[in-house]
Amino acid sequence: MVNKLCLGVCDDGSYYTEIAKQVINYYNDSFNKSHSNLRRAYFNNMWRGTATLVAALLLILTLIQAVTSIIDVLPRRK
Asked: Which PANTHER family does the record cross-reference, listed alphabetically (predicted)?
């Protein structure tokens, strides 16, 4: 009910019209929504954020190690 309270109201004479448009555009941007969800889920405190970064670093290092070991096993052509 509250979200649809001003659905049909159009007021272009307000001093806050430009700010309201910027807020609506910011809210509708999918990057901002994703950024907010990531911050809320993985970086809401220092320890969870640190653990997330360390886990991502370990995953990247594991992938690098796997790729280099596969490259070492492949036969070399001359």
From this structure: BNAC04G53230D PROTEIN, PROTEIN, PUTATIVE (DUF247)-RELATED
